[in-house]
Amino acid sequence: MPQIPEKIHELTVGQLSARSGAAVSALHFYESKGLISSRRTPGNQRRYTRDTLRRVAFVRAAQRVGIPLATIREALAELPEERTPTREDWARLSEAWRSELDERIKQLNRLRDHLTDCIGCGCLSLDTCVLSNPDDAFGERGPGSRLLLERR
Q: Per-residue confidence at 127, pLDDT binned at 50, 70, 90?
């Protein structure tokens, strides 16, 4: 991984890409979505501040756990512009996502636990099919499409 000398306070898009592991096209996309920002040189080249490396790392980590880009952008907007975000800044932001991730894990565990019941069944209308109709409020009335039957 290329090292950035301390005296360099701004990075080119190529340097940012090499250091962060994100493709140049991904960095341009992040910028278009307001996740990172750059300034333009007189030659119209992008220049990023060094703290953009941490922002890119944060974006990529958040994406890996399934956080939507709009949510990531809202979180990044809370970070200070005048200084590099600290570990405490990042911890505060990620803590806000904990309950959302816990709920997603709970749903995935439930799907995993009930997957065996539905694989190979083919009907997708079991009385207790959590895959085809999770939290089925009408399942107690019997299998099948209850609302359509009741409307007739």
A: low
pTM of the complete model: 0.65
Nearest to 70 by CA among 33, 110, 115, 117: 33
Sign of CA dihedral 8, 12, 18, 21: positive
- Radius of gyration of the chain, Cα coordinates, nearest whole angstrom: 23
- CA separation for the pair 136, 122 (Å, rounded): 18
Other Cβ atoms closer than 10 A to 7: 5
pLDDT of 105-117, one tens digit each?
998 888 887 776 6
For residue range 68-85, what is the model confidence (pLDDT) as tens digits?
999 889 888 887 776 667
Q: Which two tokens stand for residue 2?
A: 């290329």
Q: If you average pLDDT over every residue of the chain, what do you get? A: 80
